Amino acid sequence: MAAELKNHGAVLSGKKRSAGHDDGAEDNNDYVVAKKSMPFFSSPAAMARYDPAAALASARHEFGEHGGVNMSIEASATFTVMEPETMRRMFSGELGPDRDFFIYSRHFNPTVLNLGRQMAALEGTEAAYCTSSGMSAISSVLMQLVSSGENIVASRTLYGGTHALMAHFLPRVANITTTFVDIHDMEMVRNALVVGKTKVLYCESISNPTLNVADIPELSRIAHEKGVMLVVDNTFSPMFLSPASLGADVVVHSISKFISGGADIIAGAVCGPASLVNSMMDLHQGSLMLLGPTMNAKVAFELSERIPHLALRMKEHCNRAMVYATRMKKMGLKVVYPGLEDHPQHKLLKSMINKEYGYGGLLCVDMETEERANRLMNLLQNYTQFGFMAVSLGYYETLMSCSGSSTSSEMNAEEKKLAGISPGLVRMSVGYIGTLEQRWSQFEKALSRMQDSGLFKN
């Protein structure tokens, strides 16, 4: 079993084992680690005491091999030992990455491990493991927690790829079934959870693409009553929502989105108990170990340099989304945004968010038909340069897509209807490049052209 990961605490040195280091000896001077563990909370009222930015700032900082303020990139696939006996002890789990012993970069890599520490601090969990994509993080967690013949209960409204994994792939290859429910109907959720058979309750903190908000504390309570683990995809809401602090057992991310911010990297993360991460890295039964969704060390380095300014970026994403959603609503558009008071879960989200960030960087405009949705996006990109027609989110430019025919296309018509995905739903990931008023004037210009064409009446 992989050694338990120590994720939190400021570090004042980053020494590596020297050639003369006794492989089995303790060296308390290698790392200076704070003894106080990260606090965990279980109610929305307590969330005011949790600050992910502060947690990131106090997480262990890894210096470069020669004293650089940035860590070195450990590009090695395999690692040496000083004594032959050490290798046996590493494979038995006696020596591991917590004491700076590494075997092979599919197992653990020092650079990737450092990014894992940052992700654990960001989400307030004991440990985290970073993977090659968000989907690999999701699939690895589910295949570790759920066995053949067992069941997942999941929200009807999920990213299309996650829905396809649960609805089609896992039943075919692993005999794992999923019961899809209205995640806001607590009685339906409770009745779907079968003691002894259901192992995971799965939802997105803010759903893709409808922007519904999950009641994480209540879902956690119901899941734990039935002996089920709550797994939450927090891709849409880094920094401003902390599901683990609200009772989630595992938090997964597509780091490719807001955390990366550059639309140039594919990556994922599993954040949760150290016992889970260790089990996923088990040599004989671990899904991460055996499926091998390994993150490249150079990718991990890139991402570790972006996380420190994630808080600043999220504040501006959220600020602009709130301003635009408010103005769009006043113009008569059908807007979906959790920051608006008429959103059905506005009060719920307000009770759960970490203060000072806002309500998210995504909004939706429901144009009702795909024709009107496509016309609006075409004008916004090709006539006024407000944003780009592209999937994904979290980029510094605004990205737009008609979800029903793109990121949710894996779902059939009935599934989309149950999920509340309108044919004309335009999902916008609001960027922060340019000035707010400059971008808003571009939106107004496109909408004016659309009104003139007769395709939209407010």
Please describe what this structure looks like.
- This protein is of the alpha/beta class and 458 residues long.
- The chain is 35% helix and 12% strand.
- It is built from 15 helices and twelve strands.
- Helix 13 packs across helix 15 (436-453).
- It is globular and about 80 Å long.
- The termini are far apart.
- Its cofactor is pyridoxal 5'-phosphate.
- Keywords: Pyridoxal phosphate.
- InterPro entries: Cys/Met-Metab_PyrdxlP-dep_enz (IPR000277), PyrdxlP-dep_Trfase (IPR015424), PyrdxlP-dep_Trfase_major (IPR015421), PyrdxlP-dep_Trfase_small (IPR015422).
What structural keywords apply?
458 residues; alpha/beta; Aspartate Aminotransferase, domain 1; seven-stranded mixed β-sheet; five-stranded mixed β-sheet; 15 helices; 12 strands; globular; disordered N terminus; carbon-sulfur lyase activity
Task: Please describe the topology of this protein.
Elements: H1 52-58, H2 84-91, H3 110-123, E1 127-131, H4 134-145, E2 151-155, H5 160-174, E3 177-181, H6 186-192, E4 198-204, H7 216-225, E5 229-233, E6 250-254, E7 268-272, H8 274-280, H9 287-291, H10 297-306, H11 310-330, E8 335-336, H12 346-352, E9 362-366, H13 370-382, E10 388-389, E11 399-402, H14 413-419, E12 425-429, H15 436-453
Parallel strand pairs: 2-3, 2-4, 4-5, 5-6, 10-11
Antiparallel strand pairs: 1-7, 6-7, 8-9, 9-12, 11-12
